[in-house]
Design brief:
By secondary structure, the protein is α+β, with helices and mostly antiparallel strands. 29% of the residues lie in helices and 39% in strands. A hairpin with a 4-residue loop joins strand 4 and strand 5. The protein contains 4 helices and 5 strands, in the order E-E-E-H-H-E-E-H-H. The model has no long low-confidence stretch (mean pLDDT 90).
C-alpha cells in the first residue's frame, strides 16, 4: 500500500521537520490544524513560520520512497490557525 509523505517546513530555521505519512492529504491537514491550534506549542505561538508540504509517497510493500519533483504546499499555520476543516473538504480530498 502506498501512503503519502508529508513534512512541515520551518521558514525561520530554513529546514524541514521530520516526515510523517498518511493515506490522504486531508488527514495531514487535519493533524497540522490540530497541532497549530494546540496552545503553547511552537506551531501555535508562531503559525506564520510553518508550512505543511506533501513531498512524495512511500510503498510499504517495497519500502521505497518516491519524492515529488516539486513539493506541494498544502497549508500554512496562519491558514489553519483557529479553524476547523469542513467535513465536505475532507470527504472531497479522500475521494481523490
Amino acid at each position: 500500500m502506498k501512503t503519502k509523505v508529508f513534512t512541515v517546513f520551518d521558514v525561520k530555521a530554513s529546514h524541514y521537520l521530520k516526515t510523517f505519512n498518511f493515506t490522504h492529504s486531508a488527514e495531514a491537514i487535519r493533524a497540522f490544524t490540530d497541532i497549530v491550534n494546540t496552545e503553547k506549542t511552537g506551531f501555535n505561538l508562531h503559525p506564520a513560520d510553518y508550512t505543511l508540504m506533501e513531498i512524495g509517497t512511500h510503498d510499504n510493500l517495497t519500502s521505497r520512497y518516491e519524492m515529488l519533483d516539486n513539493f506541494i504546499p498544502l497549508a500554512t499555520g496562519l491558514e489553519v490557525k483557529n479553524t476547523n476543516i469542513p467535513k465536505k473538504e475532507i470527504d472531497k480530498e479522500i475521494k481523490k
